[in-house]
Structure formats: C-alpha cells, structure tokens
Amino acid sequence: MSVAISHQSKEELKRSLAGILAFEEERVAEVTDPARLRDEAIDGLIRAAVFAPTDAVREFARQTIRQAAALLNATPASIQRLYAAMGRGEEGGFTVPALNLRILPYDAARAVFQAASDLETGPIIFEIARSEIGYTAMRPAEYAANVEAAAIREGYSGPLFIQGDHFQVNASRYRSDPETELRSLRELTDEAVRAGFLNIDVDSSTLVDLSQPSIREQQRPNFVVAAEMIRFIRSIEPPGDPISIGVEIGEVGGKNSTPEELRAFMDGLRAELGNLTGPSKISVQTGSSHGGVVLPDGSMAEVAIAFETLEEMSRVAREEYGMAGAVQHGASTLPDELFHRFREVGTAEIHLATAFQNMVYDSPLFPETLRQEIHAYLKEKHAEEWKPGQTEAQFIYSNRKRALGPFKRQMWELPEDARSDLRRGLKERFAFLFRQLSIDGRRALLDNYA
C-alpha cells in the first residue's frame, strides 16, 4: 500500500511521512523505516518533488529525498579520482556510460539501478545537458531528485555520479554579449553544483574559429573560455571533493578532431590555468551526431565512427596530459555490434541519450492518442524547425524531444503496468550496454575511488 504524500505544504508533507522519516525542523534526521520509504513512500515523494503546486513544497520534497538518500548511503560524488587513476594508467579496460535520462527519468533511473545491481557494475554517470534542461522543463535539482529517489526505490547504496552535460556556450549570444552569456552559464553551473552535480562538462567548442591561420589560434577562444569556466568551477566545488570537469575541442556533428587540435587546445588551456587542476577528460568528434541521422522514412542512417581517431585521441589525452581519455558523444543510436569497440580503443566515457527516448516514444505501450497529440503540438508550436526537404517523419523524429516538458505530466501518468514494462525493456538495454562497455563486475571501483 502506498503512502498518500501531501503536496499542499511542507508541514503536511512531513506529517504524511510520520513513522518513515524523522525530521528535526526541516531536515531529515533519521530514516526510521527504510522498507516503507522504499516500498510505500518514495513514489509519492518524487511526484511531490516534480508536481507539487508551489516552489517551496517542490524544493522541500527534493531536499527530503536528497537527505534521506544520503542517510541510506546514496550520495552525489565526483568521478575525478577514478579518472585520475585512469590517466595514470592504473585503471582501464572499460568505458564509463553517461546516460541522459530525459524521458521518464525516474523510471529510467530505476531501470539503471536494477541492471547495475544484477551486474555489480562499476561507475555509471547520470547527466542532463543545458539544452535538455530547457526543453524538458527539468532543472538540475529535479533531475538529481529523480536519480536519488530511484536509488532509494531500488535499494542502491554508493556514489551517484550526476553530471552537467554540454554546459555549452551559445556562440551567437556570446558574440553579441559575451559577459551575459558567460554569466548565464556560471549561474547554471552554480545551480547544478548546489543540486549535487559534481561532474561538469564545459563546452566552449562552439567558439572554435576555423578562419584563423593556425590550429592554436583556431582553438584560442575555446581554451580561453574553458579556462575561465574551470576557474569558476574550482572556486565553488565542495572542499575535499574536486569536481570532474570535461572539455571539448570539436562540435559534435562537425569535422573529425585531430591530435594536433587536442594538443593546441590543452597546451593553451594549461598556460591559462597555471597550477590549477585541469580537466579529467576531453570530448572529440569522430563522425557521430546527436540523435543520429534520420532518413526520410524515419529510420536511422548508418554512421561510420573513426575508431582509429578515437583511439589515438584517447592515447594522447592519457599519455601526454594525464586525462582519463577521450569522450564519445552521440552514440546511443549506433548499431549494437559497435559498442564493444569503444572500450577496446580506450574511450574514457560514452554519452548515450536518444535511443532511450526512442524506446519510450516508439513503444506499443505508449498511448497512440498521446503520440498523435504530441505530433500535432510539434507541427503547431515548432513549425519553424521544419527544415526544407524534411519529410514529416524526419521532422517529428528530430523535434519530439521538445514535447518532453509540455507533456511531462501526461507521461508520468502512464498506467503503472505500461511503466513497469517500459522499465523492463530499458533495464535489458542498459544491461546490454554495461556488458559491452565492460563495467559489469567492477563494483570495487566505486569503493576504491569514490
């Protein structure tokens, strides 16, 4: 039997959790009944964290989840120490998956923890990008609460690696008003760190200027802004737990990156940072694109990944700069037979997102009436995104992520049997990926480095 969680006020919410959580003022002092929290209360508590009618009650529910999770030993953590060990050559042979759970985030995170428990996995990153925060209407504290609530629901204990993915500089806004754009990015970063994001990917690769005569000058705007953001992140990180910072040298979907670009960027960045701790990984372009390439009939085009480039970039990142290696973006829609290659060539981290969204949207369990309502919404509200020559299938595929915020409640209210079946399918997919990336059986890494 589920506990009815009041959404109306903080005091009512606290009373509804009597006998499950003990509060001192507004802070959780003790989880008095972990089993009831897991089996009866957490589903309602996360709904309050997402849908309570006031900011104050939503924020209180999120704080309650975070504090309860911490008391059950599920706490936000930085992956920095593990990545430093990988940079020293002390660990390797696996690729860390970074999962963007932009659709049904609570159910998807539950599926992750279920697969992780079965396989005794090593590190898994939960991430959300700056752009996703916008179109999912899910601020960092809400995303973190979904992950923490799922950890409670599935009985997980250990570090929670939560990451700001593609905290990206908008090039056009930067050109017109650089300080306003960077202030916006700093404010988002500060918000994320306060929410428990102890892993931040800075992306100023949008500023690379290929019109410049030398590679170093092409990369200069990138490494100067990256250094500014790294200095800011180091100034706000928690004492004793250095944030893992990622950087990027080539816009995903653009031309393939080269070792010369990596060296030009990192040498410039090091000169800017001086003795300050730099990044733990570096994102490169190897032929992929975010969301994959959709064909006119709505199917996915095959994409050729330059694995030799990825291997060389990871080697240079580790051996010359002490980083964990290179990061692969835009990979979730690749053919299954490619995933084992990433850990074989020494990829440090792989970002996976759109395929999980597709599994939900394209499932026969997803109500057809809701699907058609979403399609109509996209054609009415986002018609300006319909590019010349695109078929309707291509337009819908490319833009249905924009419906995640407006239709959040309808998706949360899918019948429980449908959500249960969707979790089962996602769990199977996560388990496949975890095996391919060789993080199964590596639970000891979490104990040793977090």
Write up this protein.
By secondary structure, the chain is α/β, with parallel strands linked by helices. The chain is built from 19 helices and eleven strands. The strands form two sheets. The protein has an eight-stranded parallel beta barrel, surrounded by six helices. A two-stranded antiparallel sheet has the order 1-2. β10, α13 and β11 form a beta-alpha-beta unit. α2 packs antiparallel against α3, α2 runs antiparallel to α7 and α5 crosses α7. It is globular, with a radius of gyration of 22 Å. The model has no long low-confidence stretch (mean pLDDT 94).
Overview features:
globular; 450 residues; 19 helices; 8-stranded parallel β-barrel; alpha/beta
Average pLDDT taken over every residue: 94
Number of helices, where a helix is a run of at least 4 consecutive DSSP H or I residues? 19
What is the spatial order of strands in the main beta sheet? Answer: 4-5-6-7-8-9-10-11
Radius of gyration: 22 Å
The residue ranges in which pLDDT falls below 50 over 5 or more consecutive positions are none
Write the layout of secondary structure elements.
Blueprint: H1 10-16, E1 21-24, E2 27-31, H2 34-51, H3 55-71, E3 74-76, H4 80-87, E4 96-100, H5 105-119, E5 125-129, H6 130-135, H7 140-153, E6 158-168, H8 171-176, H9 178-194, E7 199-203, H10 215-236, E8 244-248, H11 259-273, E9 281-284, H12 307-321, E10 326-328, H13 339-344, E11 349-352, H14 354-361, H15 368-381, H16 392-399, H17 408-412, H18 416-436, H19 444-449
Parallel strand pairs: 3-6, 4-5, 4-11, 5-6, 6-7, 7-8, 8-9, 9-10, 10-11
Antiparallel strand pairs: 1-2
Helix pairs in contact: 2-3, 2-7, 3-7, 5-7, 5-18, 9-10, 10-11, 11-12
